[in-house]
Amino acid sequence: MTEPALRHAPLRFRGRSFVALVLAPEAPLAEWLVGFDRLHHGSPGFFDGRAVILDLTRLHVPRADVLGLLASLGQRGVRVVGLEGVSPALAGPDMPPVFKGGKLVEVDATPAEPSAHPAPEASGVAAEPPSKVRSLVIDGPVRSGQSIMFLEGDVTVVGAIASGAEVIAGGSVHVYGAIRGRVIAGADGHSAARIHCSRLEAELLAIDGCFKTADDIEAEMFGGAAMVSLAGDRLRISRLPA
């Protein structure tokens, strides 16, 4: 008696976008690792559970040095899931895969609703698409362990950001309360982004990849209202009137 053929479930592919941190090391690597260790010490746990892309565009070193860098980051608990800005000749089975063309992706999966109004007649002027929300308001504190990520624009927090919490925004971050955790503004390369807060006690502040940890923040700026902006490749902290 012939046994029935086994049925196999259909193979499905789906596209998803995930946010990864990008590290862009520069030579000399020994000095870059010292700066990395300062960040790691000033904000412990920042890289825990995060996917990291290593952008080697500015790093022109032999393949052995790249392998050594990957090993050093692995010893520090950094999981590198991909490389960017490297030639295919540098890639290999002993390295993470090479990514190309990384960019922000916005997907609207909401099915279109039938319109109750007829479409306007063509008049030679393109109709503007409906405006998209470019800000997020958190009406309350961000508690320890929470992570708020909004890459489409500004984030406003009506409350404090606790130690161990973080807010990551593509634009500016406005906090009507104390910053005791981590705040990253301009995460999509927006160098004009700013950070405002009523009380500055942050573990880490960053704009467009430039950062300060608590050890780097001037003592006279602690505990007061402040604004953080980017001047060249350095963060500038200014006191605001209370």
UniProtKB/TrEMBL annotation:
GO biological process: cell morphogenesis; division septum assembly; regulation of cell septum assembly
Pfam families: MinC_C
Annotated Septum formation inhibitor MinC C-terminal domain residues: 137-237
Coiled coil: none
Keyword Cell cycle: yes
Keywords noted in UniProt: Cell cycle, Cell division, Septation
Highest taxon of the lineage: Bacteria
Family membership: Belongs to the MinC family.
Subunit structure: Interacts with MinD and FtsZ.
Entry function: Cell division inhibitor that blocks the formation of polar Z ring septums. Rapidly oscillates between the poles of the cell to destabilize FtsZ filaments that have formed before they mature into polar Z rings. Prevents FtsZ polymerization.
Protein known as: Probable septum site-determining protein MinC
Species name: Salinarimonas soli
Lineage: Bacteria, Pseudomonadati, Pseudomonadota, Alphaproteobacteria, Hyphomicrobiales
